[in-house]
## 1
Amino acid sequence: AQSVTQLDSHVSVSEGTPVLLRCNYSSSYSPSLFWYVQHPNKGLQLLLKYTSAATLVKGINGFEAEFKKSETSFHLTKPSAHMSDAAEYFCVVRFSSGSARQLTFGSGTQLTVLP
Amino acid sequence: ETGVTQSPTHLIKTRGQQVTLRCSSQSGHNTVSWYQQALGQGPQFIFQYYREEENGRGNFPPRFSGLQFPNYSSELNVNALELDDSALYLCASSLGTADEKLFFGSGTQLSVL
C-alpha cells in the first residue's frame, strides 16, 4: 500500500530564514511524488514533482525537494522564506487505480512566516 | 488563475438531503477528478471521470456519484447526506488520465447540519 506522512502539522519560520517541510512515503515500487501548496480560498497548486529523472527537483517560487530512497523521504526546502510562502503544503504520492492516476495526499503542514 | 471553476462556493444542507456540486474544467482538459478535504486533513480521492465514464474510484460509498458531460464539465452528487460529509469538495482537471499535472478549483465548502 502507498502512503505518505508529513512529520509536522505546523512549521513556523522567520522571514528570510530557511524552510524545511518533512515528508516520508511508503510505496511498494518507485513512486511519483509531488508537493502541492494551498493558499486560503485558492485552488491547490503544483509546486514540484519527482518522477525518477533526478533526485533533486526544483519547483516554482524557489522551492526544491530531494528524493532519498534509502530514507524514503521527500523533504521540501527553500533557502529563504517570504511572507507570501505562508500556506498549507501537501506531500503527495501517486498510484494507479485501474487506469486512473490517483493522488494520495498527506495530512498537510501549515507554514507560518513571521516578520 | 487555473481556469477550473466550481459552484457553488458554499452550501448548507441538512442530514438526509441530496446535493449536487458542479465543476467546469480547464479548456481542453478531458479528465476530471473529485476530492474530499475534511477540516485539517489532506484531500481524499473520490473518483475520476474520463470521456463521460467513471475511470477509477476511491474508498467512498455508492451514495457518492458523478457525471461528466460532453463539454467535459462534471457534477458530484451526494445522496442521503451525513454529518461527516461536511468538507471542502475539490475538482481537478487534467489532459488525460495519465497526466500528473492537475489543475484544482477553489472548491465547494459543504456544511451538513
## 2
Amino acid sequence: AQKVTQAQTEISVVEKEDVTLDCVYETRDTTYYLFWYKQPPSGELVFLIRRNSFDEQNEISGRYSWNFQKSTSSFNFTITASQVVDSAVYFCALASGSARQLTFGSGTQLTVLP
Amino acid sequence: GAVVSQHPSRVICKSGTSVKIECRSLDFQATTMFWYRQFPKQSLMLMATSNEGSKATYEQGVEKDKFLINHASLTLSTLTVTSAHPEDSSFYICSARAGTVNEKLFFGSGTQLSVL
C-alpha cells in the first residue's frame, strides 16, 4: 500500500515570505516517482515537478525548490518570495507499484496575502 | 508539451440522466488513462484505471455500473455517469499516460458535474 501525507491543510503567508509545504510518503517499492501539482481555483492540475526514487538531488526552478530525503521519506516544496499568484492548492503525489497508479496527498491550500 | 483535452469543462444535468465526459490525448498515444474524482476541498481519489482495448479496473467502492468507462482507442477514453444523482456532483479529472511509467502522466482540465 502507498500513502501520501500532507499534514498542512492550510497555510497563509504574506507576499514575499518564503513558505515550505511538507510531504511525507509511504511505499514498499524501491522504485517510485514523486510529484508536485498545483491546482489553482480554476481546477486544472498544473505539473510542477517529478522526481524518481534514485535521484535525491535537490532541485531549484526559479522561486521553487524541492528537498527530497529518502531517509525521512519526505519530499518538501519551498516557494521563495511568494506571490499572490502562488495561491492555490498544492498536491504531492506518489506513483509506485506495478500499476503505477498515482496516489495523491490531501493537498495544502496556500493563500498568499498581498 | 503533451496535451490532454477533457470535455465538457462544466455540465449541469437533471437527476436520472446520463452524462458522458471525454478525455483525449492530443499528441500522443495513451495506453492507460486514469479517472479521478475530487470533492470540494478534498484530494483526488482514483476511480478507475482504463487500458486501451480492455475493461477498466475500478477502485474499491466505485460502482462500475454507475461509472461506465470506455477506452476504445489510444487517444480517447470516456466516462459515463449513468442515472446521475445529486451525490454524483463532483469534479472529475482524467489523466493519460504515455508509456508504462508515470514519468509521462498528463492531466485533463477537469469536468465540474452538477446534478440537480
